[in-house]
């Protein structure tokens, strides 16, 4: 029977003749589903999610109380606003899900070519089944995960780009299944592979052809859904994973819901106002029964109780009255504020997308907003975590120089130096000496052979070799999985050694004498981030077997002789200090016994279905020992445009910048100096494994026990540097007292430094660092910015994640909250847009609580003058439309368009960002100010109008004005006051502000006349008099 942890697939659904009665295995179809709702479950699922919000659930309870209990106001007064909020939110979420459905359909309905019964058939992508043989042509995207069976290229390879998967935009080479027959229509084969799992770089399977032969396959044979075929006319592959079981679908990580600090403040303020509401209801309920306890007040002669009222339980009646007062005063909780905030965030996000300053002509794209819920967080950032390569730098590699056998070589355009070499430095006694010609050529052959670069014949386009190469006529483009590899191959071309490409399994190299050398490629020991090196095993025409290896100095130095290291270490460190990326190159001549042992080990490891990666790693480590160090290379990765100015502005705004990189310490340190994160006056503190152990032997606390006040010296800035190995000791420390002390001391030091540099970082460590700072005391707002797949973890972990549309694909962009084309755009995004968004939404929240307190306080005061009878002061129509129509549009327009300081000033004065930092406008001080203002104006509205009525004017028919007239005057003064208050606070006027402010007042006056005419036609004259009185009071 088949193992649970593997699956058997029959190519073309044709079992081998020897197979017993076939029970077709069941696999999922090829449909991709990223949507959240369907037509059938949208209503119940969306309503359930919306009523999980406390405010919505609260208003639902109030609405049900109004329906069930005899309350003073109609259920419409709370039901209509709630219905409006729920409907608007449902429409927004429904629209977003419809877009997801639309995107899914574009993928699922895409027509693909499938081989069925010997003929090519076109069918929709969603109808592909596991086992189908699929045809894909150049520039098409693979519809599912395929094992490559056949390629149109002579060398049985194909090239793909996986930018949409892992962020790498460079071309990768994939290989067909060896010894597969050309006629796929008659191919009978089975594939035994592991069950679906999300690791993009791991794939273990065995391909068998009716027990005739077995072939082990790996990631190099698997074409992933979402990748694109390049430089290959067409390929045929068999579907092994489909639909939601593809690696792309399994890697889709729904983003955790990020909540902004403003939303947390709203909830805190809401709790205060809920307490005020309950207090008001309790006070009125208590005073009602105190007042009714007086003789004659409970049952006056003109309002006798019915028998049912007399039989009602007193406590039940008190509870019912309490609920009635809660309903009467519930408008103090602004339910419409939530929908206004949602609309403000959604509409406000378009201003980022529309900003022309974010448009990059190079990629013809602007900024992208993936999450509109965090606009205001852009104005609250305290910590910025940035990647180095591709973020601070351009990820555009250029070969600068090399070191061979301890001698430094730098390419010179002038032909004065023999063989194109120019000695620029080296040991003083050997200034004009060079390494032997044999060593030079060995080094250049290593550069030409130790890589996975493929040659693309001349197209005259961007992949061509740059200026300054030896034979400009021989234009060639290179396809590689890493820009470093292309830079090294181009560097070798400058010095006379040209890689001509692969023919079958032979690598062809043209040497300085223009002779073509051929090497048989036996094995490629692929690069991985744990080993930090890659190797190739080749056989020369003379029959010698050689291993060439290149990798990081920390990975190569322990595997070569120490005297060789001493000759080259100085050059490597100097190049790293200058900001160059360095790689060391080594070689090893393998005896026939050593090669046979390595070959056997590699083949056995590749055939293993279980623990294949570990077994391969063991063989790699065994063969990559006892090597000879030849030299090292230096490649430059230039700074991004305006990187230094941007970092300087962020620090001027009070943000602390942390650089998290996988590069070595010296290279990253140099980049930090170039970006002005480290100044020459900055005192650098370095923490390594060696120093950590030496401190641990003494007193770990005393090593760091610097009084906190000494860090805040105005004359001294500190920078902190730590490497990945030390970071592992700090973050993954054991629970004993000394080890746990490291973490708190580490955090204390970091928080007192203006810049922190973390080198040799794994992607998981980046996320750990962000999480540690995010959860530290004070819960500072964090922002992560990166451009590659290795930055996704920290982008998802931070409060705000920024993706750069760089050279390493779009996975960081897809997982980010905001995406920008260049690093320089971060300055305006934070200092400009972020600052304004925060100020706008802070004012919106405070204003909403203020205007609702002004609205409901007169209603509360009115109970003292109506015997606590729960009589509403305002008409039901005014209660319903106050927040929906009369006062909603002016504050929405203000929260979208207001600029208390113009954008140019904000950009020029980074220190202004500090004024709104740490949620300054939504603290308890400003909240208390707005609350007291609401109380003051509410008292003024009620008692001012009461004073106006102290000498009641009679109508023409001799009647006095009644309670509805009184309430209408209070309401009119209220609407005009809160609207004019907003107009006075507006500093940036547009025609939209004028239209909504004066239009809202005009609409209220029109509606009030209209509504008065419907209720009672005879009241029109009375309304005019009320408005005259109202206007007198306002003025």
From TrEMBL:
Cofactors per UniProt? Mg(2+)
> What does the record list as GO biological process?
phospholipid translocation
Which top-level enzyme class is recorded in the Swiss-Prot or TrEMBL entry? translocase
Coiled-coil stretches noted in the UniProt entry, renumbered to this chain: none
Q: Family membership, please give it.
A: Belongs to the cation transport ATPase (P-type) (TC 3.A.3) family. Type IV subfamily.
Entry's EC annotation? 7.6.2.1
* UniProt subcellular location: Cell membrane; Early endosome; Endoplasmic reticulum membrane; Membrane
Q: Which domain of life is it from?
A: Eukaryota
The species this protein was found in: Hucho hucho
Q: Domain P-type ATPase C-terminal spans what residues? A: 813-1020
* Stated name of the protein: Phospholipid-transporting ATPase
Q: Which NCBIfam families match?
A: ATPase-Plipid, ATPase_P-type
Q: Where is the P-type ATPase N-terminal domain?
A: 25-78
List, from the UniProt record, the residues annotated as the active site of this protein.
Answer: 387
The record's keywords, sorted A to Z, are:
ATP-binding, Cell membrane, Endoplasmic reticulum, Endosome, Lipid transport, Magnesium, Membrane, Metal-binding, Nucleotide-binding, Phosphoprotein, Translocase, Transmembrane, Transmembrane helix, Transport
The membrane topology of this protein is: Multi-pass membrane protein
Q: Catalytic activity annotated for this protein?
A: a 1,2-diacyl-sn-glycero-3-phospho-L-serine(out) + ATP + H2O = a 1,2-diacyl-sn-glycero-3-phospho-L-serine(in) + ADP + phosphate + H(+); ATP + H2O + phospholipidSide 1 = ADP + phosphate + phospholipidSide 2; a 1,2-diacyl-sn-glycero-3-phosphoethanolamine(out) + ATP + H2O = a 1,2-diacyl-sn-glycero-3-phosphoethanolamine(in) + ADP + phosphate + H(+)
Q: Which Pfam families match?
A: Cation_ATPase, E1-E2_ATPase, PhoLip_ATPase_C, PhoLip_ATPase_N
* PANTHER family per record: PHOSPHOLIPID-TRANSPORTING ATPASE IG, PROBABLE PHOSPHOLIPID-TRANSPORTING ATPASE
TM ranges: 51-69, 268-291, 322-341, 927-949, 964-983, 995-1014
What's the chief localization of this chain? Answer: membrane
Question: Which residues belong to any copy of the P-type ATPase A domain?
Answer: 111-191
